[in-house]
Protein 1
Amino acid sequence: MKCKIILVVFCLATITLFAQDNTLNLMPVPQSLQTNGSKCRVNKFFTIAIIGNPGDRVYKEASRALRRLDNRMGLFFKQGNIGIKDTSLSATLIVEVKRSANLKLYEDESYNLSCKSTQLKITVNTDLGAIRALETLQQLLSVDNAGYYFPGVEIYDAPRFPWRGLLLDITLHWMPMDVVKRTLDAMAVVKMNVFHLHLTEDQMFGIESKVYPRLTLAGAEGNFYTQQNIKEIIAYADQRGIRVVPEFDVPGHCTAMLKAYPQLASIKREYELQRYFGVFDPALDVTKEYTYAFLDTLFTEMSQLFPDEYFHIGGDENTGKDWERSPAIKAYMQQKGMTTYQQLQTEFISRLLPILQKNGKKMMGWDEILHRGVPHDIMIQSWRGTASVEEAAKKGYTSLLSTGYYIDLIQPTDFHYLVDPVPANTTLTSEQQKLIVGGEATMWTEHVTPETVDSRIWPRTAAIAERLWSAATVKDVDDMYRRLDKINLYLEGVGTTQIKNKGMLLRRLANGYNTTALEVLVDVIEPLKIYERNEGDTMYNVFSPYTKIADVATPDQKVARGFRNIVAAYCLSKDKRKQSLITEKLQLWKKNDAAFKQLIKQSPILQEAANLSTNLFLIATIGMQAINYITTKTSPPKAWKADCLQLTKNATQQGGRCELQVVTAINQLIFTAASKK
């Protein structure tokens, strides 16, 4: 009898395994995809051949792709590293490449991918196209009762925008090499191609300079990338078809630089590394010839280190106050007929441009630098609004959108997904639209550490990557979320930590192994959005603990979003199955409060979230009442609606720098119950 039970369980498990959804879950969505009904089976004799004129990059990437596939299937492929001898036309996958690419803006990344019953073929103009196609192939891997296979498809694909970037700040909280590498791996998965490294700030100068060693001796406190580290990052990114663009922020956000070399400062004072986050007054004295000589030497050194054609000089959030405090700078401005500090900054930008140009670089800067007189050879990166992107394009500047892609602000994925660098209602001409080269997600690290940074970048950035790659018409939010759920697991497969670190953070917070009560609460809360976490009586700085409930809570919680969606559908349909699912959640939340209060006794750090748990209990109770009124002939008392809405209003108050994300759904149940005739 025992053996029969085991056999039944095994059979059920097997059925579950092979009954999984094999719908194509590609992200980004290709430009063109047709299915042909065939299946290319995969076994241990799967091989890859490279033909044409590929270059070294594609051999290494194809070898890495082969190992990644085998790691997922465990078939013990016979083929090892792929080299110039692997050209057999009978290979399972043939990759035909016309030339190796120059890693630069506007390079060809298109590809054709054909999957038929006995063979797969990738045909590309450049090895960059091959790299993108190999990522698509990884996502196509499917399974049925007979095992693993690639579905029969004919794909033509190319990016909509040539610049699909991610900014990683490494100065507000230090991000070591392992964070950089797993970020690059994940970027490659979703076909992003620019890694923007923000290297200098008021808190840190994050890169070694051999000509000015005090920049890290005084301005980094031990955490910085050596020049050898940078070469390793660039090589790692190059292998994945990703450009690395450095940012050295001047003339503001430069306290670390001024601590090391105070003779650069506008005001003579003692400079210390900033411990808090925000906008500060220190700025370079841009009227001194010494400043330009210093930057000429520094930027020349860094230009030789970073091969990309673009070089970002920041230019953002210079308050101008230190310039106003300096009699010498004010006298200089009067002599030049300048009436605003923006005019002085424009002169500064104009004098930096030839320094970069002689080093073969093109300048980039944030949209604050867009003022009358700024040379047109500069790319403008917008963070303050979409209007500045359009303004830049209308004035003939190449521009890049980051507004709407600030992933550190904890906004939901669909918000980012529906932001377009060139929206459908644009007033720009076709020629002006061409000047907008794409967009960049931005990961500022005020409130993240290496343990939590992935949960803020992924998986939401995959949706931004799709916006920048796929056709403008690809904007079905429900389908995006369906595919995002799949891609989240796939991203973890290349090393990201947003899923696995959650369990570790929960155990730490719970001070034990039993995290159930904490997890139930965390599933329906999110950290405060925009910059609200900085408000109130807690002043965060570089030494603050980022191990609290706001750090384990993540943006765009799936459980909370799902509950809101199902409540919205139920209020329209009164479907009994949806009602059952809603009731199940409400009962869980009611029961959880007592368990969470017990958990606080063994982990007092959770006390700050006690009000969230209490409020979840109260609104779950209200939700149960509403369901009862909706499903019976009984109408609620006259005062019930007002009393309930007061309770839900109270439930919007933050706790532990987090907010409940199911209050609007409870309100919807209240209104539905109260409107019952």
Protein 2
Amino acid sequence: MSDYKRILVTSALPYANGPVHIGHLAGVYVPADIYVRYQRMRGREVLFVCGSDEHGVPITIKARQQGCTPQDIVDKYHSIIKKSFADFGIDFDIYSRTTSKIHHETASEFFRKLYDEGKFIEKESEQYYDEEAKTFLADRYIVGTCPKCGAEGAYGDQCEKCGSTLSPDELINPHSAISGSPLVKRKTKHWYLPLDRDEAWLRQWILEDHKEWKTNVYGQCKSWLDGGLMPRAVSRDLDWGVPVPVEGAEGKVLYVWFDAPIGYISNTKELLPDSWEQWWKSKDTKLVHFIGKDNIVFHCIVFPSMLKAYGDFILPDNVPANEFLNLEGDKISTSRNWAVWLNEYLEDFPGMQDVLRYVLTANAPETKDNDFTWKDFQTRNNSELVAIYGNFVNRAVVLTHKYFEGKVPANAKPELIDAETMAQILPIKEAIEDYIEHYKFREALKEAMNLARIGNKYISDTEPWKVAKTDLDRTATILYTSLQICAHLAIAFAPFLPFSSAKLEQMLCLDCLSWDVLGHSEILPTGHQIAPAQLMFAKIEDAQIEAQIAKLQATKAAHEAAAKAAAVAAPAAPKAECVFEDFEKMDIRTATVLEAEKVPNTDKLLHLKIDTGLDQRELVSGIAQYYTPEEMVGKQICILANLKPRKIKGIVSQGMILMAQQPDGKMRIITPEERLMNGATIG
């Protein structure tokens, strides 16, 4: 804790465009909840803040698709998300939303202060516009072919196949992800946060002052800083969001990335209207952001720049971001319904919140992407929670009732208590503390389970059910020791498995225990009455797991069938109208392929040398999945000869092959009906 008096913990605002799934829980909310519960058990003053992120283009799109208002969408999912968190014991002090009146006021005031102090750059620029959807597009809603690896469906900000950071202008054949239409550029005026001006202090603050940050966080920040920061727009053209509070800014709202993190502040103000500033402006407050890796740049670079520009806010002490959790070897996708939704999980596994919390923590993607499988879920439950933790507690409690009427044995002989076994508890406590303070929750959970292993081994080795036949005093000693370990388990697991720890405390008839008690040899005094045993964890049968796998397989099959049906159903929608002068600009000619080879380290790109009749040139085309190099050599093709050259995988590509897409998605080269001279113009 150092010199901090209080800890302010925020977790990323989930987007109110759908329910939350296990990836969200593993990446952000369970780690944050573990950290908060632990700090509270230490007696520290903690505030845990979150809420729904309810603005932005995706919500307007869903509303349009469902024939309702954006407010209808966010109202629905805000309720679902809030209930899911409560069901899984994510113990926020406040869970609010960015459509609240206090948030709009707070975000507007934040923008206006920076605007009045000249902290923004105002400029006019050309941005991509979807004429069919009648909206400017965020980078994430522009898709095309990746110029680095040739993958189709790359986004305007990133290619998810090769991981390259992109801009929409770099994409090959960019088009709208909303309507599928080609894009035009229109002029629009916006305000920008000049991140480049903050580069020097950000470099010092992150790269020099916070070398203790997780390697994945530190590395991503360093990559951004080494690449050079650029001004970033804080407003956009949209009618859903916080209106830009400047005269002449009608039809513009605060960009959701600028608006959303201010939600941490507005939610704190909503909860503590008279004392919120001590949490956000006092130097003795420790601020920690729990997020996923897709939000690292916003919480480590952009939001700190906003806070510093405002002037009197504290900056985060740590941003322990996790990587992504995959599902059965495939990336979790809400659009493909490839996910385990929290609300549906509890329908299939009622009362088993802690099992999922355990598995997600044990398999947490703390420094790299990790995978959730239903078989692993079953194995960890049956082999660890049931067979080790639950088995030990059940035997200790059942035997105490059998031999000592449910009372902590009073005739235990102190000299016979296994001091060596009990001595292992304090080092485990210290290890858990160190791991949690350094945001290594997976390792901390291992230590808690090691305590359960110690207890299970102890009662198995000593066999009190056999000893009781000849030596009841020795039996009393064994069960006294075992019950003390049970009490320690209730404390050690409380941050991780709150429902199970509460159940164990009820069995042991204990009040809520503080963390400091962990490691003391005696928690339960002799003669203390305990309750009858309850089943801590239930075995998960093969049929339950097979049903979950079958559900996922059915989801995948349905998605593939729908995609195929959509592709066959109709040709692509007509593109926007153009004039003859636009067509005249295109120099379309015949050419012959002289040489062809695959581009190294790519699946879809061919490197071609062609004869245009005017010259010999090279081009790169994403046709390797449809044509082999051998098929291409000697083939006559049609090309757009005056397309601006573009470097792809280190090769300067001069031109583009004319292709046609069939209903099944396959691409075919457009060839002349009869062989023509190279360079024959088409028009």
